[in-house]
Design a protein that fits this description.
Order of helices and strands of chain B: EEEHEHEHEHEEEEEEEEHEHEHEHEH
Helix content of chain A: 25-40%
Structural class of chain B: alpha/beta
Distance between the termini of chain B: 49 Å
Oligomer: heterodimer
Number of domains of chain B: 2
Bound molecules: flavin-adenine dinucleotide, adenosine monophosphate
CATH topology of the largest domain in chain B: Rossmann fold
Largest interface: A-B, 83 and 93 residues
Largest sheet of chain A: 9 strands, mixed
Number of strands of chain A: 15
CATH class of chain A: Alpha Beta
Radius of gyration of chain A: 22 Å
Strand content of chain B: 25-35%
Structural class of chain A: alpha/beta
Amino acid sequence: MKIIACVKQVPDSAARVVAENGQVSWGDAQLVINPWDEYAVEAALQQKEAHNGSLIAISIGNENAKEALKHALAMGADEAVLITDPALTALDTQGAAHVLAAAIKKIGEVDLAFFGRQAIDGDAGLTPAQTARLLGWSIFSLSAKIDVEGDTLRVERSTEEGRQIVSGKLPGVFSIVKDFGEPRYPSFMGIRKASRAEIPVWSLADLGIKAPAAVVSWPEVINPPAREISCEMIEAGSPEEIANILADKILAEKIL
Amino acid sequence: MNIWVYIDHFKGQALPASWEALGAGLALGKVTALVFGAEVEQLAKQACEFGAEEVLQAEDKALGDFRAEDFASTLSALASQHNPDLIFLPTTTRGRELAAMSAIDLDTGVLVDVIAIEMEGDRVVATRPIYAGKLLEKTLCAANPQIVTLRGRAFPKPVLQSGRTGTITKVETLSRAATTIEGYSETESGINLSDATVIVSGGRGVSNNPNLIPPNDLGDEEAEIWRAQQGFNLVGELAATLGGAVGASRAAVDANYVPYAHQVGQTGKVVSPDLYIAAGISGAIQHLAGMRNSKLIVAINKDPDAPIFNAARYGVVGDLFQILPALTETFKKKLGK
Ligand SMILES: Cc1cc2nc3c(=O)[nH]c(=O)nc-3n(C[C@H](O)[C@H](O)[C@H](O)COP(=O)(O)OP(=O)(O)OC[C@H]3O[C@@H](n4cnc5c(N)ncnc54)[C@H](O)[C@@H]3O)c2cc1C
Ligand SMILES: Nc1ncnc2c1ncn2[C@@H]1O[C@H](COP(=O)(O)O)[C@@H](O)[C@H]1O
C-alpha cells in the first residue's frame, strides 16, 4: 500500500506574528511542521504499519520546508520529496492542490493521501478537498478513526452533528483532526536517520505542469485593531457578593 | 450582480450561519438561494421568508446525505449554466468542502472564513483572520464566480418575514454516491460551539479542589477525572442557566475531563459568542486564538497574574468551586429561572 502525507512548514503557534508594511512578519520565530500535519503523519504511519505499506511525505516550499519533511521522516516516513520552484511564490490553496495532485499522480498508484485539517498560517482548510477533487478521489475530511480492509474504507468523522460514520472505496484523501489521537514523538533512531536523509527536490518541470494561475490574492495584511480591554477586577467579601456584582455587570451589557 | 447563497442544513434544518450568509448577500442586492437535499421544500420557502428572491431547489433522495462530491457537481453545473458573480456559503464543515470542490470545478478560488466584506467595483474585498486571529488579511478572488464562505456570527441574521414568497425553481441534481453515510455514533452528541451565544469554559483548574473526596477505590488519574467531573458539573449548570454551551481548554481535553468536541482554541473551535466565561483557564495564546473575538469575556482564576485577565473585561480572582455555584444561583434569581 502506497501512502502520502502532505506537510507544510509554518511559524510556531506560539510565535509573535505581526503585520509590517502590509506583510506578515514573524521575526526570528522558529518554523515548524504544521501541527495538524503531525496528526496526518501519525494517521499515515498507522496505515503503513497495519498494511505493510510505504509512506512518502511531500511538501511544497523552499529549502526550509525540508525541516518539516525531516520531522515526518523522523516520525517514521520512508521517503520525502520537496517541491520547490521559483514560479511558486504567491501560491493559493487551488494552486497548492494542483501541485500536490500532480505530485501524487507522478508518484503513482497511491492508495491513501493524508492532510492536516488546516495550515495554521493561512487557516484555510481547503487544500485536502481541492486535491481530492483534482484527483477524482473521495474526500474524508476531519477524520478521527480510519479502518481499511481490502479496498474498503470505514471512517469516523468529527462533524457539527457528532461522529459521522462513512464508508467508501480506495483511493481516498483524508484530513485529520485532533481526536484521532496524539502524534508520536520522533524516535532517537528516527532523528538520526532523518538528519542524514537526502531529500529529492522536484520542480514544476519534473511534475510536468505549468505554474498554476493565482486566483486568490491577499494584497494587504493588517494588525487587528487593538481591543481596549482593561480588566475590571470584581472584589468583595464573599463569593455571593462577588457573584451579585458580576451578574449585574453582565446583565448591564444587555447581551443575555 | 448575480448573487447566490448556499443554504447549509442538516436534515432540512438550516444552520444559523446560512441565514447570516443570506443576509450578507441581501446587503449587496437580490439573492438567489440554493437549497439541495432530499426533502427541502420547507427550507426553500423559509429562504424566501428570509429574503431570497429566487430559490434553485435541487431535491433528490440521493442528496439526502451531504456528500461534498455530489453537491459540488450539482452546484458547479448550475453555476456553469447561469454564471453567478458571487457564491456565498456559511463556513460550516459542509460549506467549506463544497466551496473548495466547486472552486476546482469552476476554475476559480475561495475566500474562506470571511468576517467582513466590501465591494470594489464587481470584486469582493474580504477581510479574514489568519494566524489564528493574530492578523487580518484583505483578500480577493480574480476569477468568477467569487466563492466566499462567511464565518458564523460575523454577519447579522436577516429578519424573517413570514408569508413572504419568491420564485422556487426545481433544478437537476447530479449524484454518483461514491461514499455511504452509515450513521452517527451515539457516543458523542453534536455540540455546536460555533453558533452558541454564551459559552462557559473550564480548564485544568476545574479538577483542582482538594476538599472533594473521591470514592476511595479510584486511582490517582481516575480521582483527578472524578474531581474534574464535579467541576465541569458546575460549569455545565452555569451554562445551562444562561442557555449556553460548555467549552474547554486543551489541557482539560488532554486530561480526559471532557471530549475534544468541547475544545476551544487554535486546535479546537474558534468561537465568538456574546459572552465567554473562562473558569480555571490560564489563557495560553493558543486558547486565546479561539475565543478572543467574543463580545464579553469574563475570567475566573485563582492566580491574579493569569494571562487570561489581559483578554477579559471582568475578572474574579478566586476559587471557581465557590464562584461558579454562587454565579449560577444569582443568575437563576435575576433571570427568574
Ligand atoms: C500547537 C498547540 C496547539 C494548542 N491548541 C490549543 C487549543 O486549541 N486550545 C487550548 O485551550 N490550548 C491549546 N494549546 C495548549 C495551551 O498552550 C495551554 O497548554 C492550555 O490552553 C492550558 O490549558 P489550561 O488553561 O486549562 O491549563 P493551565 O495552563 O494549567 O491553567 C490552569 C489554570 O487554572 C487556574 N486554577 C487552578 N485551580 C483553580 C481553581 N480552583 N479556581 C480557579 N482557578 C484555578 C490556575 O491558576 C491556572 O491559571 C495548544 C498548544 C500547542 C503547542
Ligand atoms: N505547501 C504545502 N505543502 C504540503 N502540504 C500542504 C501545503 N499547503 C497545504 N498543505 C496540506 O493541506 C492541508 C490544509 O492546508 P490549507 O488548506 O492551506 O489550510 C495542510 O494541513 C497540509 O496537509
